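As noted in the main text, all predictions were made from sequence alone. Below is one such record, for DUF4190 domain-containing protein.
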Amino acid sequence: MTNLPPSPYGPADPTAQGPQSPYSAPQPSGVAEYDPRQQPQHGYTAGGPTPPERGQGLGRAAFIIGIASMVAAFIPIVNVLSFALGPVGVVLGGIAWAQAGRPRAQPIWGLALSAVSMLVSFVMIFVFTFGALFTLGMTVESAPALETVVAIALGA
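Prediction:
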């Protein structure tokens, strides 16, 4: 074994007395030396950091799509988009509802709103279409005859 100079950080054996670090201040009697291993670990467990909580992104997406498609169901021409968004919300809500260990309120609401919005937009498509056709038909029937319009246009 070779003769090595003593380490400035203390001996390898913590029970042995060795030279103090030249940078450490002398401790008054009765005060324990600072040991970082004895401090509580803030925010961490012994096994490491806690895993992040699982979110409810699919449920939230289904809820937002359900609300948006419900609002769009009452707007003419846009209600076709609402009819197409409905199945997306139903699928996302169904997947989120089936996942274990997650809150289920948003997926259920998203699924229900999306399903109802498909029904409402289906009905509103017929209402708007037949309403427009009925209005157009009434306008054509009450319009003056073509000969009268041509005569007025030619100034006769």
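DSSP finds four helices and two strands in the chain. The chain has a mean pLDDT of 76. These features were considered when defining construct boundaries for the mutagenesis experiments described in Section 2.9.
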